[in-house]
User: Fold this.
Amino acid sequence: MSSTANNNGKSLLDIAMQKTMESQLWRSIFRHGYPDTPLNQSLVMMSNVFLHLHPVKVSRQAMKITYTWCMGGISFFLFLLLTITGVFLMFYYIPSTDVAYQNINQLNSAVSFGLLTRNMHRWAAHLMVVSVTLHMIRVFYHGAYKPPREFNWVVGVMLFFVTLFLSFTGYLLPWDQIAIWAITVGTNLAPYTPLLGDPVYKVLVGGGAVGQATLIRFYVGHVILLPLAAALLMAVHFWRIRKDGGAAGPPPPSRRELEAQAREERAAVGATHS
Assistant:
């Protein structure tokens, strides 16, 4: 009798999978069984470092792509893409007014996949601003800022401003004429800040005009300070989504909708009996 028949008709693939899942290595990584019961579902979610940020149970209606449009997930994906491409660009960029522009030209012409990577970084930055904006509009439109999610709404607003500052600081790094004068116009608005106008301008620019001090400050903020702030706020944001019971679901159907549904069900039952 063959070995397949000896295992109650299981295929070799099923036997291999069963032995793998029963091995000590597998059980040391995945400590609970397949999530086929509510208990196993909860245990798997709570014992996994990646899955524990998500709620154990979510509303089926709230997970529809036509309801959320996955704008939060798209924004997070773009942030990861920006991180990967940004690390690549850091190997070929020096934050100096003497060589920054030459570094960009060299990256575009002499570095393998340099132009592709820089364009991916630039377009991902633009798309992230758009996706975060649309995400906030969707959340506001669906009333997901209301209790108990008001704290997470504030965290989301902070993430929105961090995204804008990331885009603003990165705009100067190519050190071409468009970047220099755009940042000059932007930083000249800082002195009009109530109470803290001049100190804010000096912190941003580092002097009386846009120059080397401005470039190094924007570079440090773009590659260290703001990404760390974004990562921390996103961790809190995801954690609060879990604690608040997942994404805010759509409102319950109105009485008119319930009555229409009841009439349709009665008509369907009548047609079946007839």
